[in-house]
Amino acid sequence: MQSTSSYQSVKRGPDQVIAPLDYELLSPPEDSISSLAWSPASDLLAVSSWDNTVRVYEVVSGGPALFNQSSPPTITGKAAFTDHPAPVLSVCWSKDGTKLFTGGADCTARMYDIATQQYVLVAQHAAPIAEMRFFVMPQGPGILVTGSWDETVKYWDTSRITGQPLVTLTLPAKVYSLDIRYPLLAIGTSETPLEQPISLWEPTTRHIHFIDLASPQNWGRVQRTVKPSCKGQTRSVVCFGRDNEPQRGGCAVGDDQGKIGIQYLNYDEQDQARARRDKCAWVPKWPTEPKAGVAQLSAAAYPINAIAFHPTGTFATGGSDGRIIFWDKDNRVRLNAIPQQPPATAPLQLSPPPWAGFGQPVTALAYSRNGDWLAYALSYDWAGGHSHALPGRTNRVFVRRTVAEDLRKIGGK
Fold first, then answer.
1. Of 124, 141, 241, 250, which has the maximum CB count within 10 A?
2. Cβ(235)–Cβ(256) under 8 Å?
3. What percent of the chain has pLDDT over 90?
4. 106-110 LR contacts (CB < 8 Å, sep 24+)
5. What is the pTM of this model?
6. Mean pLDDT over residues 11-38, rounded?
7. What one-character DSSP code corresponds to residue 342?
8. How far apart are CA 342 and CA 302, in angstroms?
């Protein structure tokens, strides 16, 4: 990657939907973007792609970033890693931000030293690695957790590279998504056939598995398994919780039918009420009335490709409809959306999917360490199959300055 000290911003115009405070990263990947990850210790943003590369950018605010609408950031390309021989599906950082982990369709995970830009192989599976996360044991080593389509989750000691996992957890289905908010690990798996189907319309089931990471003795067994309230195939799982009450956590689940469900690990009376309320999954829809000659997008279902929690507890979702929606989890209401509404001339002939929001699906989301910035990626997610993989499509990555409308909870809390 060639370094650049400039940034590119796209201002809102008569035919544009990019917000004035969204800044575009230069030198984007040449194929679909699979994941985004901010360093927990610096302003570095990692971008992985189906073009077998991982790009690293530095996003430096021109002053206090939160709600600052006057000063643009400086965005610099820092590195491009091209060592994977197959698509890179997931990236994550070490706690101190000195190491970057990458994994994907070559069934391996690599650990890059950001200072030297050298890597070592740290993990191996029998099938592609779908998702990875890193955590640090109290008074212990840093652990890389990898989830794979080979139906296993493996734990790797990154301080002592041996080629062998510390623990292997075997699951009944492929791992599609996982996330950690220590000591909680949540894993979303693929559909599995039911031995005794509930009905002809529901011959399969899907699960969210919770693991307690507080003790290594628990890593190899599932603490609790729940069936998500979403009826579709799980696409994204992101944990939430409270640092002083780790057992009050859970996860948000997005599926391929455009629904979002909230799953709690443990239930008190308040959580039970929330669980009953959240049993009906949320369905993000266009808030517009159908018009003659305009696609009726509110009747369609589009996958939830990405979920990102802000430090305040609100969260954002990105989907195949080409929109980002901001939510108040506790009050279960929508706070904001970008773009605010679909263009007046959404093409009917591209159904599905019309991508009427940004013009193409949102494939990844990530908040920066302090929540000042939201990074989002626009690229094809293959929800419409090969026929909708239009040649010449531009893959784009933006950083959005956080605004009050994205965060303000009901009651002002």
1. 250
2. yes
3. 52
4. 107/148, 108/84, 109/144, 109/146, 109/156, 110/81, 110/83, 110/84
5. 0.85
6. 76
7. -
8. 14
